[in-house]
Specification:
Length: 374
């Protein structure tokens, strides 16, 4: 609210109605003290009443304007966005979500408000952040990962939750089934049962002499065990040996890569994890230092210096998440909206990293790449 404007100083009027006399010294001479006090007091009270009325008149439009603005803001849908990873680590996904909203005529700050919250890889903060969004009375919560969706569901069964992505939401316990979510959670999943196996095949194609393969996973992520099983199936089918390595904290990365090197690993599959995404530059640096060709399950890893990435397009998923928000704002129930599986996958190859590792990527693989970083 703007401060009230200064009250203008009023000029004295030279003409007065009958009976309204200015208490000048000349007119006050000879009056008793009691009468004199009454006149002065009456004059001061009238002046104070005038000043108070002026302030009220000046303040009224400002208060009305503030009330109108508050009423207008109250009619704008409020959306919560919850991420386990720092928002700075997922800029492409955020922009894709915003673009999806714009395509549906929602403009942030105009006809929609977004409350952004991130746990910055401290997963124990997710329930508190989800509870904060509920207290803000958001109309829907969009989650950036499976763990964020699960945390939000544990906090509220009333507020609709849209997964921007998740691994296996059924195994996670977020939904009853993909076709019939059965609660307040729906959205999109990166679930593709052959994805980790496909990553193993692509790495073997890029490194034909590969004999021993390492995997890097975070056991804190409830979906890592299932992803690891899928990778193991393909490893055995290709006749490779497997070295499974787990990391729970960024401080463990150096030792993890030392374990891989000592075991004679000739390649690495990094399974998807929010903490790995945040530490993607560090992981790429250690892979290069230990001369380990690596493939990742999140596209941003290749952009940060990883050799290859094969994954569902996160940008496509988050763009489509906006359509779920739109449907829910228009009255649809999450239980009636089936969870969608990915339809667009991306193969990204970083030729600069390949050159540093002394690898020559087969032309057949380059032709299938959706993006080649040079």
């Amino acid at each position: 609210m703007r401060p009230p404007a200064p009250i203008p100083r009023l000029a004295r009027s030279r003409s007065r109605p009958a009976g309204c006399l200015e208490p000048t010294p000349a007119r006050l001479e000879g009056l008793p003290k009691q009468a004199l006090g009454a006149i002065v007091s009456s004059h001061m009270v009238s002046r104070r009443a005038f000043l108070a009325g002026s302030v009220t008149l000046l303040a009224a439009p400002l208060g009305a304007e503030a009330d109108a603005q508050e009423h207008k803001a109250g009619n704008v849908p409020r959306i919560g966005f919850l991420s386990a990873a720092p928002l700075s680590s997922i800029p492409a996904r955020i922009e894709a979500f915003r673009k999806g909203l714009r395509d549906l005529s929602y403009v942030e700050g105009q006809n929609i408000v977004i409350e952004w919250r991130a746990a910055d890889d401290k997963w124990d903060r997710l329930p508190d952040l989800a509870a904060e969004l509920v207290r803000l009375q958001v109309a829907v919560i969009v989650t950036a990962e499976g763990p964020a969706a699960l945390a939000a569901k544990r906090v509220t069964q009333r507020v609709p939750i849209v997964m921007g992505q998740s691994g296996d939401p059924v195994a996670l316990g977020a939904v009853v089934s993909l076709a019939h979510p059965g609660g307040n959670v729906t959205g999109l999943t990166t679930l593709a049962t052959d994805l980790p196996g496909k990553q193993v095949q692509l790495l073997k194609e890029a490194v034909p002499k590969l004999l021993r393969l390492a995997t890097l996973s975070n056991p804190v992520d409830p979906l890592s065990a299932a992803a690891l099983r899928h990778a193991e199936t393909t490893v055995r089918a290709l006749g490779l040996q497997l070295q499974a390595v787990e990391v729970r904290d960024p401080k463990e990365f150096v030792e993890a890569f030392s374990v891989m090197t000592r075991a004679g690993a000739g390649g690495l599959v990094v399974l998807p994890d929010p903490m790995f995404l945040t530490q993607r530059a560090r992981i790429a640096e250690l892979a290069a230092k230990n001369r380990l060709p690596a493939i990742y399950g999140i596209p941003e890893h290749a952009e940060a210096g990883g050799l290859m990435a094969y994954a569902a397009s996160r940008s496509d998923l988050f763009r489509r998440a906006a359509t779920y928000v739109d449907k829910i704002l228009k009255g649809a129930k999450p239980a009636d909206l089936p969870v969608e599986q990915p339809t667009k996958f991306e193969l990204i190859i970083n030729l600069k990293t390949a050159k540093a590792l002394g690898l020559t990527i087969p032309p057949s693989l380059l032709l299938r790449a959706d993006q080649v970083i040079e």
